Amino acid sequence: MKRENNSVKITVTVNGIEYRETVPAHTTLLQFLREKLLLTGTKEGCGIGECGACTVIMNGKSVASCLVLAAEVDGAQVRTVEGEIRDGELSALQKAFIEHGATQCGFCTPGMIMSAQELLERNSNPSREEIVEAIAGNLCRCTGYEPIVEAIEAVITSKDSPRRST
Amino acid sequence: MAETNDGYTYIGKSVTRRDGVEKVTGSALFTHDLVVQGMLYAKTVRSPYAYARIKSIDTREAEKWPGVRAVVKGKELSYKVGLYVLDKDILAKDYARYQGEAVAAVAADSELAAEQACEKIKVEWEPLQPVLDPKEALKENAPRVHPDLEHYGYMKGVFFPKPGTNIPHQQKIRKGDVGEGFRQADAVVETRFYNPPVQHVPIETHVSIAQALPGGKVQIWTSAQSPYTVRNLFSVCFGIPHQNIRVKVPYVGGGFGGKAGIHLEPLCYVLSRKAGGRPVKLTMTREEEFNTMPSRQGLYSEFKTGATKDGKIVALQVRYYWDAGAYADYGVNIGRAAAYAGAGPYEVPNCSIDSYVVYTNKVFGTAYRGFGHLEVLWGIERNMDIVARTIGLDPVEFRMRNVLRPGSVTITGERITEHHGRVDKCLQAVAKEIGWKGYKTEQQREEEKRSGKVRGKGIALLHKAPAMPTFTSTGVVLKFNENGTVDLMTSLVDYGQGTYTTLAQIAAEELKIPLEKINIPWDSDTSFTPYDWQTVASKGAFMSGNATIMAARDCLRQLKETASQVLRCPVEELECGSERVFLRHQPDTAIQYKDLAYGYVYPNGNAIGGPVIGRGQYIAQGLTNLDPETGQGLPALDWTYGAHGMEIEVDTETGDVEVLKIASSFDVGKVLNEALVRGQIIGGVVQGLGSAMTEEFRFSKEGKLENPGLVDYKILTAKDIPRKMTQHVVETPQTDGPYGARGVAEHPMISVPSALGNALYDALGIDYFRLPLNAERIYFGIKSGKKEHHG
Amino acid sequence: MIKPFFYLKPRTLEEALDALQSDGARALAGGTDLLVEIRNGERRPETLVDIKGLKDLEDLTFDPQKGATIGAGVSLNVLIDNAQVRKHLPVLSEAAFSIATYQLRNRATLVGNFCNASPAADMAPALYILGAEVVIANAEGQRRLPIHEFLTGVKQTALKQGELVLRVEIPRLPKGKMAFLKKQRIKGHDLALVNMAGLADRPTGALRICIGACAVTPVLLSDIGSLYKDAKDVEKLAERVAELSGTAISPIDDVRCSKEYREDMVRVFVKRLVRQICSGG
User: Fold this and answer.
1) A112 and A52 assigned to the same domain
2) CATH number, domain at C133?
3) What is the pLDDT of residues C76-99, one digit of tens each?
């Protein structure tokens, strides 16, 4: 393996679009999304995986993008909050967040939505405990969490809940 | 909370907030996200010592580092910053006064280059003996955090720094004669409490971008609560005229008071200036947010209460010692405001309060939701329970006998009227919700202890008025668009409370147009949106709401004036409704707003009127400064009262507490939007629980902050919230508030720790005096076997 | 701010071992500890060798006779989701579930958790009581170490430069009841103030308890097996084991809690653990 410079070439699909980029090896996925692809929906809240503001879905699993290197997503499928709206239509979860006051300042919201969306895609009928477990890694300082849990529960109990797939 | 139908279309309804789509799609741009053409990134070098003289700073290597465009150190800057006391330098000059204080800064092409360059900056320090406790700082030979205090500028007539000391302000309240009061008392009780410093933990850290433009102009983008305050303080600091400074505030990821003043903007500006005018962005890392950005002051509180055997408080003597940290910032005002609220929502005929704001060598305190009231009410409400028990009264009953009611006089001499809220109703509501029947007996406790889990209930009251200058004011502009929609322009910042939605409801209600037709451009910009003092103090809905009503009525006046010419009738015969102006006695004769919005055009081409632009303003009415010796005066725009009732379960083997239920009640005057009120209450209660149960700054003996990060500064997660939270409102109209409303933004956080402390007494028979009430503290109280735990 | 480094993605184990030879090379699996350390300046590796995807590291097998194998690439959530592990080695699933957050568990690995060698590593006590063995690959071949010889100190292991942990093996399926307990400051994600795992099997009189976060490495209580065999009363047994645990540990004061609280919580939790695994015959 060559080591002349510390850049890596990656091919990654983000929200359905393929990108081929060369990035310094130390670039995190979070930095790649925000600074290279200008997808600023995903936020940095702590840089050490404690707050969840940087949560995205990678190959179907929610991950803290501040602790994933861009190098590690070569060949991967990544979804960010920007990809949740399809043809101008908000997802059921996005609508529920608005209706139930699950977003106040909005800074934790993208990460929260990705964690919740990933939950709904692997578990169509989670209990309250399972909901809480899925979002416990997303810190919110504004809402007190209860409205967020209510929004997610509303999506589960509503009759039409369109699911997303990659 | 039940919604009432009182004839309003939008007021009182739970309309969904306007800004949801931008936030759930990630399209809302925060300063965190902004990139400006030519932007540089800044990083800082910070003091490892709590107190040290800066002997020298060698920046030569840093200046040569690839990508570096500017390096600045304190010595080059001759400016002073401060809200009330001008005690702060942009970068520490000769002395670093807290561990974490910035002493030098670099602006470079990338954050990485800036950080690497910072590592090349060599600082020679002479560590000094720090003072880390406010009581220590009051002693005769304590180290002086600001030896030059007497030479600082400050807001005269309101604040009184004491030369030769560590005291930037002392507030006094003197009502009646406490000596006489104590003589009348049947019981005199003395108690002492402590709150540690904590942090706001906004999920978006502090971040600013500033650009020094040619011609002495400045452009700033910042995550802040007060664009006009940033502009004003910036102007005062640099001597740049206001009109040359433009401040833009986009979406803000949480503020809670921490972003109320001026923070990173001056540093970004001086770096930009040195970098030839390129914009400079400085984003605090989470560690810097804890270690460098301000905190909430710590507080020692001491009470001496005299009460008669039939449960009347006759004397109250209080001492507050605020741990202001290294700079006065908002701290001096907190010391002032919390003092005038410092007896709690009670009638106290003889009262003496001394509130000392004291410098220490720790990160400085600033405004934080509650503005000192959570801190003082920790002690006040715990004290009330202890006094009640001492005289043998039920704590709810004791409070009922002393709460402020119409006719009562507060400790600053304000007379309570029937337009004030009803704290007694809030108290009764929560007592009922948690099923308060009095304290457990010792026997009941012992029996429960055998199972390893004991339950307890506790209640605490709260009150707060906006702590703001007597001349606080705000403006709102409503401008029509050609299609009859309206833009609402305000510099009030909505950083999550939902106030923009409330203002839209008010505008729609007054203008009698559909809510969807009110548009609120999100960003605040001192070039375009009219003045608002600050988005703090729970006064947004009140003051900006009133200004919105006035602006709407101004619009209607303009619409009617033009319409009266077109319809050839006196203005008095016109009515507005359903987006049109019409003749009251002949409603079919009407003109639509949209045909008047930019002026009316006759068939022959003549035109009259012009763009409809409504102006509204509101200035706090009748407020006075406090007498420097007695604290008497009228500082309060409005008082919001509230109460919490809590039920908990304690694991006696570990000290872990499960909050089973929190019932909260507030007299909000009038619910403008129930969903938003509920949102504030739940959010504030959970934030209050953080202060109650887990949050504190831990300092080493040398004054180094040992937990500047989310790993060891724990805030509540979704797993930690109470099993049940209920919200209740009382609606005693605030006559001068919009539709009778008063604020409820800060209040839900206040007194949550007090309710927990009181519930712990019920559960365990143990009084705790220090926060946070974490498992370890509770456990050691149980282990000691004593009835009081001061550790 | 993550410091610059080189990134290599070996296609085979041989390439990985070769890359790991140079000073300053470190293996990258989940990255949830390593990337944090790099950001905080605690480690400054020259090269990160990404071992994810190497098929030698992906094993997650379970056999009632031969025991279990968990490869270095297996994430905590994959481990937790495995029904066999949940059924037969619940102490591993419980320990894994207590770690960090759901999204971090999608990346963090069991092997990474104990290779980081924090005294409070949540996977370690369970591995101790299960008698786990660490299988290590190097240029010469393979070697194995019992877990208690692998962890040598605070953030220190017996792994040499050029070596890579391939997997952890639980040599045989243990009989009896097992459980993992953890004392945290909040219910949400938190490091352990104290953690412990226990295994009890009445017929053979086996009783193994290992306590973490109370010494530089996890503390396996010795000589308690015989106590269980002769015990007539679970409560008395619990008390006795708690007493012995007190003398075996050496906790410290730190920013999370005091030494005294740790000592007292060890007593409380050891008793709870014994009650849980030793009752019901």
Assistant:
1) no
2) 3.30.465.10
3) 999 999 999 999 999 999 999 999
